[in-house]
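Re: beginner question about structure tokens

> Can someone show what the tokenized structure looks like for a real chain? I only ever see the sequence side.

Sure, here's an example I had lying around. Input first:
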Amino acid sequence: MNDILKSLEQTILARRAADPETSYVASLRAKGRAKMAEKLGEEAIEAVIAAVQDDKAAMIGEGADLLFHLMVLLADMDLSLDDVIAELARREGLSGLDEKAARGAS
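And the corresponding structure tokens:
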């Protein structure tokens, strides 16, 4: 995993128990998982808008926001990016269509 992502993951874990008045991560945690999921959804929508508008600068920022909020939510669920990476590794070499069919997705 990229060093900056590992560093960010450690910062998120450390700040979860911080004062919500001084830490954005702690303030999200204090609001609960539903709020964290909502923020992830908002960032995903903003990334979609940036992509549709072909706004590369906005997409970079929204992509960073999306990764950050995903990592906050993963940490709240006692998961890590390594867990997600392991799943991607498991899927490597599979046809995306075959993998999706195996999950029963349409």
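Each token stands for a local structural state, so reading them left to right follows the chain. The radius of gyration is 16 Å.
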